[in-house]
Amino acid sequence: MHLYRSHTCGELSSKNVGEEVKLSGWIDRKRDHGGLLFIDLRDQYGIIQIVIDSDSDFFHSCEAARLESVVTIIGKVFLRDKELINIKIPSGDIEVKIDKFILESPSDILPMPVSGNHDLGEELRLKNRFLDMRRTIVKNNMLLRSRIISSIRKRMIEQGFYEFQTPILTASSPEGARDFLVPSRLNLGKFYALPQAPQQFKQLIMASGFDKYFQIAPCFRDEDARADRSPGEFYQLDMEMAFVTQEDVFETIEPVLYGLFKEFSNWKINTPPFPKIKYKDSILKYGTDKPDLRNPLEISDVTKAFLLEGVTFKVFRDQINKGAVVRAITAPSAANKPRSFFDKLNSWAQEQGQPGLGYIILSDNEAKGPIAKFMSSNAIEKIKVNSLAKDGDAVFFICNSESEASSFAGKSRMRIAQEMDLIEQEVFKFCWIVDFPMYELDESGNSIIFSHNPFSMPQGGMEVLESKDPLEILAWQYDIVCNGIELSSGAIRNHRTDIMEKAFNIAGYSSNDLRTRFGALYNAFKYGAPPHGGIAPGIDRIVMLLANEPNIREVIMFPMNQQAQDLLMNAPSNIDENQLKELSLKINKAKDKK
């Protein structure tokens, strides 16, 4: 018999009754019933009940062993009495009566409970992540993540992709988020950067003559944490293809995502081809470029209705005359809602820093509500037509600058749907957001900058760059969104140096800037590069959705906290003077801010 086990705890069943078995694992729970001691023994594969009689030579050793101690036991498998069967676990109809007990590794007093469901603080969990991952739900998330990545690899290889690894130590990028920098010992005063993404490398792979590339790529960005974004590092399914159009990329990745979600969830999924929504339409109808299509509500523009003759709602009219717009959200069948429903939404809006949510209630061919008395019958009719509202509905209004109105209307759309329980449950709804603008104005409004990916091909190529208003140029850029979460951005790349130079010139980069900052890519494209494009869905976000977890840290094995600290390994940490001298570095202590 093996030194530690003949079976795992999860594989024993009534078929093993009468067999002598050897099991190893952790003591999950103990129950002392006078003359009998019951131990739940746990390993990765399951839990089995162990029984020790009080006259056993090992009774006191078992009794003294703390929870989470690692033990090995030898014993015989028996059927449980019918009244003692535990239907909650697969092995609930059997137990093992102990003949031999070995304490492999005693546990100290636990800093946190492992067995059972407990509401534990994040700091405690992350400091003791090795214990946290023994808990069933966390362990299952990590195993799910492993199976998802294996399935992704299989699906990509079946489509003819080859997996290549790109460098981790590379050059700093002037675009995107902040880099993590690594000082060089052999090249004093110079720094590597950890890659924010393998963007330039995967394009260089295409320029090298490979047709289909992918990898499960680690990426590093010095960003703040969010519920759907972990600070520090993350992983993505990075892929690139040569000689493809936007539709080719869609047709390649859609079966991978659809098959993956079908394999690992029993929720409904919208079938490919996924709907394509233009960026400008998404901003208007959903108030965001990450729409949650489980929510049936849509936003409409009703600005003109408030300018019609007979409308005396001066608050909106004055703002519209200064360039504001009015967005409307129809709440179906909300006319019969109590006043508290509307008051609650109004209070929520004020908590968000807004003046409130104006609304009208449509009933019996007339409008009621706080602003109804300021509206003419023509205006009410125009609102009904534009917002597809009918008698029995309520219509909410947001008036502000176009960007502010869209943003808050998007939040209001979700809040109203939540209050009315309209969001479809247990379903994944994918969509593509397409036709992103190539450029936008910076925050000061004085200069033109890239709005998305600077390496994208403009729709129309050189001709539109030379003839069109930059703010009207669209790019071959796209996002894949699921349930309001952006899984990935992608693009058909700019593979020609002349178009690249012109595109960067418009964004304020000189030709010399382009050659200096993106020299490898620029140089490679001078010697013949194929049209190519790709995408990089986030692994962490995919697992988060499939595990039905609201926080991305629940599906990362060793996550950082919101302050980008690894509480388990105490990182980031100080380094000693010798290491600093070796790198010719000196730490300047920051002065306290007053």
Can you describe this structure?
With 594 residues, the protein is α+β, with helices and mostly antiparallel strands. Strands 6-9-10-24-23-22-19-12 form an 8-stranded mixed β-sheet, with helices on both faces. The N and C termini lie far apart (69 Å). A hairpin with a 6-residue loop joins strand 20 (439-441) and strand 21 (448-450). Helix 5 (199-207) packs parallel to helix 15. Helices cover 29% and strands 24% of the residues. The chain is globular and about 95 Å long. The model has no long low-confidence stretch (mean pLDDT 95).
Biggest sheet overview: 8 strands, mixed
- What structural category arises from helix and sheet content? alpha+beta
- Assembly form of the protein: single chain
Averaging pLDDT over every residue, what do you get? 95
Order of strands side by side in the largest beta sheet? 6-9-10-24-23-22-19-12
N- and C-termini, Cα separation: 69 Å
Low-confidence stretches: none
The number of distinct helices, counting runs of at least 4 residues, comes to: 17
- Over all CA atoms, what is the radius of gyration? 30 Å
Helical content band = 25-40%
Strand content: 15-25%
In total, the number of strands is: 24
Shape: globular
Characteristics:
single chain; 594 residues; alpha+beta; eight-stranded mixed sheet; five-stranded mixed β-barrel; 24 strands
